[in-house]
Structure formats: C-alpha cells, structure tokens
Known about the structure:
With 311 residues, the chain is mainly α. It has helices at residues 2-16, 20-26, 29-44, 49-77, 81-92, 98-113, 117-124, 137-184, 196-221, 224-234, 244-254, 283-310; strands at residues 258-259, 262-264, 267-269, 273-274. The strands form two sheets. Strands 1-4 form a two-stranded antiparallel ribbon. The protein has a two-stranded antiparallel ribbon with strand order 2-3. Helix 7 runs parallel beside helix 8 (137-184) and helix 9 runs parallel beside helix 11. The longest helix is centred in the middle third of the chain and has 48 residues, at 137-184. The chain is globular, with a radius of gyration of 19 Å. The mean pLDDT is 92.
Amino acid sequence: MTALAMVLALALEAALGWPDAVYRRIGHPVTWIGALIARLERALNHGGPMARRLSGLVLVALVCALCGGVGWALQAVLPGGWPGVALTALLAAPFMAGRSLYVHVAAVAAPLQAGDVDGARGAVAMIVGRDPAALDAPGIARAALESLGENASDGVVAPLFWGVLGGLPGLILYKGINTMDSMIGYRDARYEDFGKPAARLDDLANWLPARLTALGFALVSGRPRHVLGLAWAEAGQHRSPNAGWPEAALAGALGCRLSGPRVYGDRREAHPWVNGGCPDPDAATLRAGLGVFVRMTVLVAAALLLAGALA
Length: 311
C-alpha cells in the first residue's frame, strides 16, 4: 500500500505539479526545509575546522530529527485502507520532482532548437551552477543532460525508493538530507568542513538510487549491455560517487558525450569526458533525453510497485 501511495504521489506531481498561486502564498515544503537549514547554518557555522565539522553534525542531526519526526507524526494520524493511501499520496506529492525536472529541461531544449542560444543560456542557468556565459550550444545541451541524469536520481528515483522503503518518514527524511547537501555540501572555504557531514550522508542515501537510475536508463535504451558497461567503466571518473552512474548511463543511451571541462565563476575545472568517443549533444538529443527520462521513470515506478506488492 505504501508503494502504491508513492507511485500515486509521483503521478499526482507529474499531472499537477505545485501551483504557482500556492507557492506565492505559502512557499513549498522543500523551501521550508531550506529556510530551516539556512537559519541553522547562520547560527552554527563558526570557528575553526573541527568546530565547524562538529557544528555541521549538529545541523544534520537537527534537520534529520525534525524531517523524520514530521513524517512520522503525519503518518501516525492517517487512517488505514484506501483513504490512507490517498492522503499519503497527497502529502508525498510535493516531495517528488519529475514534472519540475522535465519542465526545466524542456525549457532549455525549446530555445536551443530555435537557435536562441542566449535564451537557452538563461534557461540552463536555472538548473546548473556553472557559468552559462561560458557555454556554447553543445555545452548548454551537455549541462542540461547532466542535470537531467543526476536529478532523475535525486528528484525522482531516490524519493520513490525511500518513500516505498520508509513511508512518509523515509521520504521527508531523504528530502531533508538531499536539501542539506544542495545548500551546504560544497568544497569551498565556507562549507568545506561544515558541510562535509551533510555531503557524506547524502552520498550514502543516494548510493543505491543512483545505480537503480542507471539501470533504468539502460533497460529503456534498447542496448542495456552497452549502457551498463559504459556506466561501470566511466562512472568512477565523476567528481561525485553517485552522479556519474546516471550521467554515464544517459550518455550511453543517447550516444553522446557528457561532462568535460567546465567553468564555475572565475574557476575552470578540468573533468574527463564521459563517452568521449561520441559527438556532442544538440537540441534533438536533449529532446530524446527527455523521452528516455520519462520511460525510465515509468519503469522504475512499476518495478517499485511490483516489489512493494511482493513484499
């Protein structure tokens, strides 16, 4: 029943999203978590390296306790049977991000396909951290596909997985962990020590979902052995222990190269190519990537629903 509730939540988010009018009035549950993290970070992120790391552990403990506790309290008061399934799906839907991810990547593909590189740069700046001014058309397509691959795991497969495994407590706890990593899990002067506990916990929480996402991309690609072989061979080159798996699998499924050198502000980072013997992606590749993403999402949702039924 929990698996059914989570799949219904995914479908509900895909159909309706989070209405702008609601967002303007009350925000979004993930922004509420983000506001809590920001407030705790300002209060705790002080002192030397050891003090910052200990303070980062305190933040992780507080956010996890609150997110898990809220999820447990909500689930504890829900009725059983089909009313409980429906209410669980309604409460879980805001923590899924399939529609949001699709819309943001499609917003890059549309101007890119029309030859509007500046418009595509503005759209891709909404989903990646690198400097969009340094990106040409292939670089924009690569950045959008890398975001699609990584966030297919973080925003769709991982919430589904932890929701099926742990219900609302597992789902909301995961979103708390992932939001902490996205806000403070950086290797810079401010967050190197303070954000390390959050980053390590996020690595752990996403270990299996990232590999499930790569498997899903492979199975819907039409050439699963090739895609899985590429992911196995090249995922370890990625700067993240998890993101390389879905990104490499998506590159293999689409027959394009991803990653490579990139610019963040005034810093240029040299990263190896993934699937480097293939051509750069273009707008058509980006559209094809959205199709692969949709098919993978349906496959993983069906598999988790079946696993839940068998369990």
